[in-house]
Write a structure and sequence with these properties.
831 residues, alpha/beta, five-stranded parallel beta sheet, elongated
Length: 831
């Protein structure tokens, strides 16, 4: 037998413990003296001969037993331990036959099997003295096991002594670690790619994101790459003490670990750093510089030798470390839902999680994938192991109490405290903006909106946002847009409440909502320039609005801001800013209609109508009823649609505004058509046309001509229909109204379809499609694609029909138009 240790385990429940044992024993005795079961067999080797040879040559076999070790079953459902071909069983048989000492290592809830539980060949196992390995007491349990091994074998004791002078300063590996496979792989690739020039990787992210855990976990996985030792220091850059460790103190600690006598340590920092670099030069060492405050603090601790690897963690984005020292930056984001769930499962029993799936989902949602929050939840759940998880979930479900619930009882297990250490390092102006960004409406904020929020010029606000980003308190997830983790936002809101008065917070909210409202109005005018203008008051003196180049820029702005605009309207409604609520509904309607966001449009107009009812402006009520009727009609809510539109007609007549009357009659045309009442629809279309002709607005007259033509088609009067639509097309082109031109080309295609002129219909629909795509009106693009599919199917052009219907189907799905989805899917199935 050789002076070696063999680790035997079952992958079902003991793999992580086996890896933990391998890491620690390798650290104590060297990688050449420890075998981790089949993972130690080189690829391509004779597995049977190699593994049994290694078992017989070992001085001890550690049998790692989890709760399911004895009862694991194979494909047949029989116990694997009863299968003569089972490798755990064969390894144990070989060990006993060779006189190798077998030490069972029990993990967590595992129990020792009785003699009756085991096959005869390994029944002796039941009499072996065991050791426990628990995540809660990993350090103590591993130390005891190492003491046992060195006591039982002089060779292992000598190996441990020979490695005693090699610094092994890494802290205990994280007890619960999950969900970072991608980041670990990136870290491995980056360190490997930089191995010839001295790899430095700076891991950044908000407090509690798991930077130290990632660094230490990776370090233990790659100890074999650094046989000359590992140095570690917590530089306390963000610490309850508020005092970062001086670089000189860290270097003195490293010199001590490297065997330098205190009397031989130079006095000056530069000389200390030079001595440190000389000692590690040429050695394969890993230096972990944890919790770094800034680049100046960490620079003297860099080894300067290409043989060393360096891992740096900091809440700051250490861009200077990249530009000056070639470090690679790795930013940590929150854990995905699968990783967060796996972290819970590592500590809490699977039975406990399975018993309360709704509570588990609520806990995961409350933590938002932040590892510190998850670890606090785990600790609290374990402390009250007999409590249902729903009790904790209920406490965290309340947003106002969530940070209180994420307090584990000391400063290092208190999320609020952890975030405060980051905020403490900010400038006064950045702290103020941090709080205001927390109360701003929407999931994220643009740089111009942040400037309005804080009443800052564009240049200074960019600097403040960079300060927040460098502190990992906001994330620039797309260029020029910044978001916060939900838990960081709660802390930001608390900061705003503590440091700014209620009037100051209200003024900031008013500024940012004002900014969004006025910019949305500008954007809507670019999308729909022929729409009746809205009398909007100018921005407040310290308010702003963004200028937009053209309709494409306006559409892109709406895409980026639409969630924030919806939130801004809700904010305005909660503060009873009725004029703003109504204006935001008006400015959003074109974009929401074009994008097929019908239920969002319904919600904004319901809020718009509620606000308009409190305004003294009768015209606002007319328009709110009209637009609400239009969106109800598109959503198939025909009774509500007719009700709102008839109310709008009555109010418009009471107001005496011909334009509002005509526009409301025009809206009734569409609603009645959807109900199949084509005769009444034509009456309203004709009435709207007469009113529009008295107003001398050619674009509106052209739209009314198209409406009359469309209704006439449905009633079979194709000559009148074509005459009106062709006249409409000429007027729209004269007015350069692309939206109206597309609508009329669509109607001409509709007439061609009903008169059997299918090739002409395709020609008109293709022209309309090109215009709609240029404008970005996805709602009508879907309708035109659907109509084109019908023409191709009629002409037996099945391939083309399939393509058009498939594209229409995808858009209908995106827009939530379920009835259209079902109808087109049937058409595709029949095709």
């Amino acid at each position: 037998m050789d002076h070696r240790v063999f680790i035997n385990y079952r992958g079902e429940d003991s793999h992580s413990y086996g890896a933990l044992l391998y890491t620690e024993l390798t650290r104590q005795f060297g990688a050449d003296r420890v075998f981790l079961d089949c993972e130690s067999i080189p690829a391509g080797a004779d597995f049977v001969e190699d593994i049994l040879t290694r078992v017989r040559s070992a001085v001890v076999l550690l049998a790692v037993m989890g709760p399911r070790w004895l009862h694991a079953t194979g494909a047949t459902g029989k116990r694997r331990i009863d299968d003569p071909a089972d490798w755990v069983r064969r390894e144990l048989i070989a060990a006993f036959a060779a006189g190798v000492r077998v030490v069972p290592v029990l993990t967590e809830q595992a129990t020792m099997p009785t003699e009756a539980d085991l096959p005869n060949e390994i029944a002796t196992l039941s009499r072996c003295q065991f050791r426990r390995l628990r995540y809660h007491d990993t350090t103590a349990d591993l130390a005891r096991l190492v003491t046992d091994l060195t006591a039982m074998d002089p060779g292992l004791a000598a190996a441990a002594r020979s490695r005693a002078d090699v610094p092994r300063q890494l802290p205990t590996p994280p007890a619960a670690f999950a969900g970072r496979a991608t980041e670990l792989a990136r870290l491995t690739d980056t360190m490997a790619a930089s191995s010839n020039s001295g790899a430095i990787v700076a891991i950044g992210g908000i407090g509690g994101i798991g930077k130290t855990a990632l660094a230490v976990h990776w370090a233990y996985q790659h100890l074999h790459q650094f046989p000359d030792g590992q140095l570690y220091v917590d530089l306390r850059g963000f610490d309850p003490s508020g005092q970062p460790m001086p670089a000189s103190s860290a270097i003195r600690g490293f010199l001590d670990a490297l065997g330098v006598a205190p009397a031989m340590v130079p006095v000056e920092l530069d000389a200390q750093a030079a001595r440190y670099r000389s000692l590690v030069a040429g050695k394969r060492m890993l230096i972990v510089l944890d919790n770094v405050c800034d680049v100046d603090q960490v620079t003297p601790l860099l080894p300067g030798s290409p043989s060393c690897g360096v891992l740096v963690t900091s809440r700051r984005r250490l861009a200077g470390l990249a530009t000056t020292h070639g470090a690679r930056l790795l930013s940590l984001d929150v854990l995905p839902e699968t990783g967060a769930r796996a972290l819970l499962a590592r500590q809490l029993t699977s039975e406990r999680l399975a018993a309360e799936p709704e509570a588990v989902a609520d806990l995961l949602a409350a933590c938002g994938g932040l590892p510190l929050a998850l670890r606090i939840v785990i600790a609290r759940a374990e402390h009250h192991a007999h409590f249902p998880l729903s009790v904790l979930a209920e406490e965290l479900r309340s947003v106002s109490c969530r940070l209180d619930g994420l307090d584990g009882g000391d400063l290092r297990a208190d999320l609020r405290a952890a975030l405060s250490w980051s905020a403490r390092a900010l400038s006064t102006e950045a702290v103020s903006l941090f709080g205001l960004v927390g109360i701003a409406p929407g999931p994220d904020i643009s740089r111009p909106a942040a400037a309005s929020l804080g009443a800052h010029p564009a240049g200074p606000v960019g600097k403040l946002l960079r300060e927040l980003e460098n502190a990992s308190l906001v994330q620039q997830h797309v260029p020029g847009r910044y978001r916060m983790h939900d838990l960081v936002r709660l802390y930001a809101i608390e900061t705003a409440v503590q440091q700014q008065s209620e009037p100051a917070r209200q003024a900031a909210l008013r500024r940012v909502v004002d900014f969004l409202t006025h910019t949305a109005y500008t954007a809507d005018r670019l999308l729909h320039p022929h729409r009746a203008p809205l009398p909007v008051s100018p921005p407040a003196p310290d308010g702003k609005s963004s200028s937009l180049r053209d309709a494409s820029a306006a559409l892109a702005w709406f895409e980026a801001e639409h969630a924030g605009l919806l939130a801004a309207q809700r904010t305005a409604a909660s503060h009873k800013w009725d004029q703003t609520v109504w204006h935001l509904a008006w400015t959003l309607t074109t974009f929401l209609y074009w994008r097929g966001r019908g239920y969002e449009e319904l919600a904004v107009w319901q809020a718009g109508l509620d606000a308009a009812m409190r305004l003294p402006d009768l015209a606002a009520r007319v328009r709110a009823h009209r637009y609400l009727g239009r969106v109800c009609s598109r959503l198939g809510q025909h009774v509500q649609a007719i009700g709102h539109l008839e109310e709008a007609v009555g109010l418009a007549e009471q107001h005496g505004d011909s334009a509002d009357q005509a526009l409301t009659h025009q809206s009734l045309v569409w609603a009645l058509t959807q109900c199949g009442d084509d005769r009444r629809a034509l009456e309203h279309a004709t009435h709207a046309l007469r009113l529009f002709r008295t107003l001398d607005v050619p674009v509106w007259e052209a739209e009314a001509l198209n409406d009359v033509g469309r209704c006439a088609t449905r009633l079979g009067d194709f000559d009148q229909a074509r005459e009106h639509c062709q006249a409409s097309l000429v007027m729209h082109r004269q007015c350069h109204n692309s939206d109206g031109e597309a609508a009329t080309l669509d109607s001409l295609g509709y007439i061609d379809h009903h008169t059997g002129r299918h090739h002409d219909a395709i020609h008109h629909y293709e022209q309309a499609l090109a215009l709609r795509r240029r404008l970005g009106n996805s709602y009508q693009i879907a309708n035109i694609l659907d109509a084109l599919g019908n023409q191709h199917a009629t002409l037996d052009q099945r391939g083309r029909a399939h393509l058009r219907w498939q594209d229409a189907l995808e858009l209908y799905r995106q827009q939530g138009r379920d009835a259209d989805v079902a109808r087109v899917q049937r058409q595709l199935d029949e095709l």
